[in-house]
Fold this sequence. Notes:
The chain is mostly beta strands.
Amino acid sequence: MTMSFLWIFSAEGQVFRSGTEAGGFAGFSYYQGDINPRKLLYNPGLSLGALVKHNFTQHHCLRLNVFFGQLTGSDMDATNEYQRIRAQSFNASVLDCHLGYEFNFMPYVINRWKKANTPYIFAAVGYSLVLSSTTDMAENHVTIPFGVGYKYRFNDKAALGFEWGMRKTFTDKLDGILNPGPDGSYSKLHNNDWYSFVGIFVTFKIFEKGFDCPGMKEETKRK
């Protein structure tokens, strides 16, 4: 019965393979908030990072990321008169760290050619350190990262990918502008300060563990 169960899950005799990948990220980061409420890819700054991904099934992945990003905004970039009169601006550098979950839409195994690429989505819990800022109000803060990506494994050890991830922040002080609610209080949950990371990454397999069907091994030996 055990052999039949294993064979159902993999006609090739491979039931489950897990693997860990590590690599680097390069791209750009940008800010959305009170100064830039709608524009995507606004004033992009340099972004670099490191990431580790552990594929514990073909569709489910645990990820750990540490990204550095530069954020900037200026009211003088706006077309409306109110912002140009306000003339608020800021520049900041952040170290964004998060631990989260990644879901692969297609089966992804890092050592088999026929399962070499997949789009994915991710969600995480993070914490961001403000390394420098032109506003004294900026503070370290909790984030909720989420986004989409695509990864392509071009050989049995390395993969190349693209990712666009947003960060919902729990601070309203990143850009130095506070917006009180209807009752005059300030909420860390309902605020306008967001930022994003967009770029490419390369990962390399660190180690791998597989569980194979014993019956398939015997069949391979006889061949």
